[in-house]
Specification:
There is one protein chain. This protein is α+β, with helices and mostly antiparallel strands. It has seven helices and nine strands; from the N terminus they run H-H-H-H-E-E-H-E-E-H-E-E-E-E-E-H. It has a nine-stranded antiparallel beta sheet, with helices on both faces. The protein is globular and about 50 Å long. The C terminus is likely disordered.
């Protein structure tokens, strides 16, 4: 069954933030080989992603193989000049050849929807990219997404705290489309050389407690799998998957 139209608006919001922080976030030159050698691999990042088993039996996992390609911006975006510029920039860029992994986890009939992306970069570049996206989120008060039809949805954006770190940027997006209430909780976090973008999206409800619980689950799994902690600027030391040589 296809998702109700409002969920497509939520999906657009999820993809937009993921793109803003993902491997094609900003126009940069390729990282030197000595930097990329120390980054976690795409497989290691994938192992740190949430799965349906982490969230519960009502969820279905939909792996995302890569971020949208050039010219495939998830949705036209206006408002919040800094954040809109990052999102819309993706439509004309080629991606960076850096480790990246993403997943979407859908509840019954796609509601709620949880998204998570992990992207790795050299420390200095990640610091610049992360701070740029964090500042864009902090200065955003309302943003409009095309809902995939002639309609659009405008979200009011307010800061929230999703996890244990009060300094971790996170926002609540509140809007409506065709009379349906839409809510989203979006947070970003850094784990050394890895950045995470997390989204919790729902219709006809506003479950900040559930969003916070699942965000904390995501953070804990990344910390456990990559051998680092939230907010760290030290390169992670991923655990070797079972059955692979050390």
């Amino acid at each position: 069954m296809s998702r109700p139209r409002p969920i497509h608006a939520l999906a657009a919001a999820a993809a937009a933030v993921a793109v803003a922080l993902g491997p094609a976030a900003l126009p940069v030159t390729a990282a030197p080989a000595q930097d990329t050698q120390e980054l976690p691999t795409a497989d290691q990042l994938k192992s740190a992603l949430l799965t349906a088993a982490d969230l519960g039996p009502d969820y279905t996992e939909l792996p995302v193989t890569q971020s949208p390609g050039p010219g495939e911006s998830p949705a036209p975006v206006t408002g919040c000049a800094a954040l809109s510029a990052l999102i819309n920039m993706r439509a004309t860029q080629t991606g960076k050849d850096l480790p990246y992994a993403a997943v979407e986890l859908d509840g019954p009939d796609g509601n709620p929807m949880v998204t998570q992306t992990l992207a790795a970069e050299a420390p200095d570049r990640l610091t610049a990219d992360f701070n740029t996206v964090a500042d864009a989120l902090r200065t955003c008060h309302d943003i409009t997404f095309n809902a995939g039809t002639e309609d659009s949805v405008t979200f009011t954006v307010t800061p929230v705290t999703l996890g244990d770190r009060k300094d971790a940027p996170a926002v609540h997006l509140d809007g409506s489309l065709a009379g349906v209430q839409l809510n989203a909780y979006v947070g970003i976090e850094r784990f050394g050389t890895v950045a995470m973008a997390f989204g919790y999206f729902e219709r006809q409800g506003t479950s900040e407690q559930a969003a916070s619980m699942q965000y904390r689950t995501a953070v804990a799994k990344v910390e456990r799998t990559l051998g680092t902690h939230a907010g760290s600027t030290t390169a992670p030391t991923p655990a070797t998957p079972a059955g692979q040589p050390v």
